[in-house]
Write a structure and sequence with these properties.
heterodimer, A: 158 residues, alpha+beta, 5 strands, 34% strand, elongated, B: 330 residues, six-stranded antiparallel β-sheet, five-stranded mixed beta barrel, 5 helices, 15% helix
């Protein structure tokens, strides 16, 4: 029996990875499928350490509270990671990320969840590939945690 | 205000290191771009994009092989826990703001340009400079300064592969309410894990009462005009309107005039069931106080004789309480 690894989970039933979007399949105004990120203590600590961010406000609730926060909260490298994941989950593995500009709002405190939405704001034909700008928003129970724009390139043909 | 002057000096000194174009020392990644850290990242973020982990698949895409998640750009050069470049431009600015009392930090903006994708085996070097620092701003988190740091990321050949900008707010955390922190044996403040009983609200009118309790005395206010005793403390006699007063020390004996037993809600520093008594003192005034710790609520009855004791609740708080001295007089 073959061990199931986490990379296998998103494969289609026939074992292939999902197809990527091509430039002609994308139009300004297209909405990305919503995603919900579980902002648990475990998520915050695991992603902070995976990004090698050892600031105490991302793993020590007592110190986070002493510093004026109500709990530990997600670090910015991870928020950026979730934003890019949200975009590439939609565009598919052929997408290449060129730029990310994100603005942080309310913290992603432990115990919350972040609902991610996005919309295509700009498409540019670069000749051999297409460039797509997507406005992304990640909101939790307190308001917008992250808003910003991600720019990717996608292939012209599959 | 010597402290304030020192803080201003530190802020001015910090500002001299802003916008100089001084990049400070190179920060070389501890490890080259590697699969283990990529796997860790992908599992933590549940990012299942196969171009980061499935080499056979990645080779068939326009990436031409495995690449690192772009959002990991800064991760490759992150410091060991607690380590900081002591002379870098970040320490010159952020360290001085720390010393000036702006000890907390939150990132407000994060911008990345990914000039090309990173591949396994590349060692990344980071250079940082402080591009901008705002005037002091009042924010919802506290007063502070917005500081923009620019990071350049270089490959083994010194070619720029990515640019990052992070805007931080360095701010003073708001004052915590009294009692939220306490000193420990080694002299360091630490968060109090067990919430403590709420402190009495002490003011000019009732300070005598708590000062008396601290000395083991139960003091009652006596009007300077008509000598009427009164409790709870108040500034004016309701009989003769005199604002003159002094105190007498109560004998401490009395009877239970009425009582309740507190079961709910839970209160820090209080064990329930918790009998709370209205005691009529021998001197004639009544006061509310808890029963002595350990008193069985079943034993409390109206009319019962009681005597004052002083219960130490924690290292800072002592409260008057009453213990039962004999059977109720039915």
């Amino acid at each position: 029996m073959t061990a199931i690894t986490d990379t296998d989970r998103h494969r289609d039933t026939d074992g292939a990875w999902p197809a990527s979007l091509t430039f002609d399949e994308i139009a300004v105004g297209d909405a990305l499928p919503e995603a919900v990120i579980d902002v648990s203590t475990k998520t915050i600590v695991a992603t902070a350490i995976a990004s090698r961010d050892y600031q105490d406000v991302h793993h020590d609730r007592d110190l986070a509270q002493q510093r004026g926060s109500k709990d530990i909260f997600m670090n910015i490298l991870s928020s950026n990671g979730f934003v890019l994941r949200f975009v590439t989950d939609w565009a598919g593995p052929e997408a290449i990320v060129k730029q990310a500009n994100i603005r942080l709002g309310v913290p992603n405190y432990a115990g919350d969840e972040m609902r991610m939405t996005g919309q295509v704001t700009e498409v540019t034909d670069l000749g051999d590939e297409g460039q797509v700008a997507i406005a992304v928003r990640g909101a939790n129970s307190l308001g917008d945690h992250v808003t910003g724009t991600v720019t990717i390139t996608v292939p012209k043909e599959a | 205000m010597r402290m304030a002057a020192d803080a201003r000096e530190l802020v001015d000194e910090a500002r001299r290191h802003v916008g100089t174009g001084d990049y400070g020392a190179d920060k070389v990644g501890r490890d080259p771009v590697n699969q283990a850290m990529i796997n860790h990242w992908c599992q933590a973020l549940e990012d299942h994009n196969p171009i980061y982990r499935d080499a056979d698949f990645a080779a068939t895409t326009r990436h031409g092989g495995l690449v690192a998640p772009p959002a990991m750009l800064q991760t490759w050069t992150m410091d060991a826990p607690g380590k900081d470049d002591p002379d870098g431009p970040q320490s010159n600015v952020l360290g001085r703001l720390d010393a000036a009392g702006y000890t907390s930090v939150v990132a407000t903006n994060y911008e990345h340009e990914y000039l090309r994708e990173l591949r396994l085996g590349e060692r990344i070097t980071q250079r940082s400079t402080i591009e901008d620092m705002s005037e002091e701003k009042q924010t919802g988190l506290g007063d502070g300064y917005f500081v923009t740091t620019r990071h350049d990321y270089l490959d083994d050949d010194g070619e720029l592969v990515g640019i990052g900008r992070m805007r931080l707010l360095k701010f003073k955390p708001p004052e915590r309410p009294a009692g939220a922190t306490k000193g420990t044996a080694n002299g360091q403040g630490t968060a109090d894990r067990t919430p403590r009983r709420p402190r009495p609200a002490i003011n000019e009118d009732n300070a005598y009462f708590w000062e008396g309790v601290a000395r083991g005395q139960l003091l009652i206010q006596r009007c300077g005009g008509c000598e009427t005793l009164r409790h709870p403390p108040r500034p004016m006699c309701d009989r003769c309107q005199s604002t003159e007063w002094d105190t007498v020390t109560a004998s401490g004996s009395g009877t239970v005039y009425s009582y309740v037993v507190h079961h709910h809600p839970p209160l820090p520093g209080v064990t329930t069931p918790h009998p709370v008594l209205l005691v009529e003192l021998a001197e004639g005034v009544r006061l509310v106080a808890q029963a002595a710790i350990g008193t069985d609520p079943e034993d409390v009855e109206i009319g019962q004789a009681v005597e004052v004791v002083f219960e130490q609740i924690d290292e800072e708080l002592t409260v008057p309480a009453f213990r039962l001295t004999e059977e109720a007089q039915r």
